[in-house]
Amino acid sequence: MDRVNNNSTVGGKKRRSVKPLPAGFKTRYGSRVQVWNKSAWMTTSGLKRSDLMMNKRGRIVSKKKHELGKKNKLFKKLTQALVKKGKFHLITKAEAKKALSKK
Euclidean distance between the first and final Cα of the chain, in Å? Predict the structure, then answer.
């Protein structure tokens, strides 16, 4: 006896409804370049065009990671101001800022 299931289920699981693609996009998922050029709606990781930016080298990067990188670059610059050859010393962010403000 074969059972016929009239519900919208496959293998006992309900199908999820897929939202329609917004107007003006060819595909739902694509590369960062495709999202930037508005031929895809988002990347597979979920980044939309509003989450992306072009850096000074012309690469398409996420705004969030770009800000983190700038913060790390500043900290590296601050800590290098206190480094002395032949001595090992852990430097906190507060110490580095304090030293730079004295110079």
Answer: 87
- Tens-place pLDDT, residues 46-80: 999 999 999 999 999 999 999 988 888 877 777 77
Helix (H) or strand (E) holding 101: helix 93-102
Q: Residue ranges per domain, the chain?
A: 19-54, 64-103
**63, 52 in Cβ contact below 8 A?**
yes
Q: What is the pTM of this model?
A: 0.59
Helix 63-80 × helix 93-102 angle, to 10°: 60
Facing residues of 27 across strands?
40
Nearest-angstrom CA–CA distance, 99 and 82: 7
Are 40 and 30 in contact by the 8 Å Cβ rule? The answer is yes
